[in-house]
Amino acid sequence: MTDHPSNASVASAASADADAFVAACRDAIGAAHVLTDPHDTAPFLTDWRRRYTGAARAVLRPGTTQEVAAIVKLANTHRVALVPQGGNTGLAGGATPDAAGGQAVVNLARLNRTRALDPSNNTITVEAGVVLAEVQNQARAAQRLFPLSLAAEGSCTIGGNLSTNAGGTAVLRYGNTRELCLGLEVVTPQGEIWDGLRALRKDNTGYDLRDLYIGAEGTLGIITAAVMKLYPLPAANVTALAALPSPHAALDFLALAHRCAGPLLTGFELMSDFCLRLVGKHFPQLRYPFAEPHAQIVLLELSDNESEAHARTLFEQMMEQALESGLVEDAVVAENLAQSRAFWDLREHIPLAQAEEGLNVKHDIGVPISRIGTFIEETDAAIAQAVPGARMVTFGHLGDGNLHYNVQAPEGVDAPAFLAQYQAPLNRIVYDSVHRHHGTFSAEHGLGQLKVDEATHYKAGVEIALMRTLKTAFDPLGLMNPGKVLR
């Protein structure tokens, strides 16, 4: 008779192997950068929204690409799963370990060097842990623009931006992070280093590995550095707020702005009246910008390489047409940088005001731009029928079809109870509507662990099968961020 090991002995062996992994990591990257004490690891184990809290065998903080590669090789030897992490600002739980305690977090904040800045080639080469705002500042010092801009830019990192293919407020003109990247350096799941740091805009030499890693959320390998595109620094930015009667009018105004401004149009953000009322309620210093209420507000921005006078003249002509045609009910143009910043503060404080108001059901959806007005009308009506009194916080990047379509509990209703009762049915209403309109249930935040099941539900079987084939080919041991993107 063959004796089989007990569950206790298997668990003991696994624990011993994990302990050996941690000890080997101390030798590889230095004991000071291997965190195991609960007090030290706690900041790395909860996501930004505080929706997920995991446990980890250790938090590892490598300082070079070679150290990342050494960690991955050790993980292969000891069969320890790794969770790559940047600034830990993600909104889908993609950088949080599971609750079992056997995974290790690989935080890349120490990979924070700029390797090259080439103004003539309009490129900057940075490591994964460089904070987005630092890339913007270095570009500006060289009279260049790095256009990726989002609310977390003071703490999110380039590696995280690439891993989630972050969007932001300038996608309309410059595209998502994928469009801003020319080359990557990646540590593969086997611990090898792929040097794809090519600062080239044309390179037709086979499969585009770069685009596979971007948006993969660390499930195919760990991005350690990137070559990012820069652009000429605009001579002027002109910002305005326009009041409109409906989302349909906003779409017509967007078409007019495209005709009048063309590539100068760099921002076109939609905000409902309730969004700005909520901001004013919780941040009184940010006042409602118009004397009368309006159903929708658009924040738009032009970036001009000629002059501020040229930009303002163009802006005034566009606004004159919009007002005369009735698309726009009222408008105010920022007179200086401080007023422009105040306009953007209104937009950026919407998520903060929501948090102050209480728990809510968030959606990061995208539909074809032409369908946005109809989507909002139909889905608002379905939600009102399901939850009378629900308050819609609808805002986002209208210019690229991405809305943050959030549902706040009815006035006076306990927010946690509302979330527990209605989150699942509201998600189904919204995502089914998105699907009918040929959209996506995750436009810029990624899947992480939050939406991994939605992917299986809404994506075609052949697409999921192809994704699984890629995952198995790249990561046959399943050690790269398991449970994210795919189950």
TrEMBL record:
- Name the needed cofactors: FAD
Its GO biological process annotations read: respiratory electron transport chain
Q: Which UniProt keywords apply?
A: FAD, Flavoprotein
- Listed InterPro entries: FAD-bd_oxidored_4_C (IPR004113), FAD-bd_PCMH (IPR016166), FAD-bd_PCMH-like_sf (IPR036318), FAD-bd_PCMH_sub1 (IPR016167), FAD-bd_PCMH_sub2 (IPR016169), FAD-linked_Oxase-like_C (IPR016164), FAD-oxidored/transferase_4 (IPR051264), Oxid_FAD_bind_N (IPR006094)
Using the record's annotation, list all stretches that form the FAD-binding PCMH-type domain: 52-233
Q: Name one GO molecular function term.
A: catalytic activity
Q: Tell me any Pfam family this protein matches.
A: FAD-oxidase_C
Q: Which family does it belong to?
A: Belongs to the FAD-binding oxidoreductase/transferase type 4 family.
Q: What is the official name of this protein in its record?
A: FAD-binding oxidoreductase
